[in-house]
Design brief:
single chain; 110 residues; alpha+beta; 60s Ribosomal Protein L30, Chain: A; three-stranded mixed beta sheet; two-stranded antiparallel ribbon; 2 helices; 29% strand
Length: 110
């Protein structure tokens, strides 16, 4: 995930590797026929690294959530009210598991 963004002068852009990652996420969503969710969401992410090297879980979130929005899982990641990220077992090749749940609200607090 540390290779997703690149600085070009004063701008930050998505790298070639980042565009490939986004394309892969979009293809996976299309293959699963995921329908866009509206409303408030809870997201649970399980990151299964490919090996035992040290990794920061917080580096996964931005690219993943943006790719899920681009792939049509939801309109925008501002819909997310609850985000849970955990480390899963080491998995050859690595993988990320995502569970999206619609949150029903019973009232709003200012």
């Amino acid at each position: 995930m540390n290779h997703i963004w690149r600085r070009v002068g004063p701008r930050t852009v998505i790298s070639r590797e980042g565009r490939r990652y986004r394309t892969d996420v979009c293809a996976a969503l299309a293959a699963m026929k995921v329908e866009r969710m509206d409303g408030r969401l809870a997201v649970r992410v399980t990151v299964c690294p490919p090996d035992h090297r040290r990794r920061d879980l917080d580096n996964v979130q931005k690219a993943l959530l943006d790719a899920l929005a681009k792939g049509g899982a939801y309109r925008d990641d501002s819909q997310i009210d609850r985000l849970e990220v955990e480390r899963g077992p080491v998995t050859p090749g690595g993988k990320v598991l995502v569970e999206l749940t619609q949150i029903t609200t019973q009232g709003t607090n200012p």
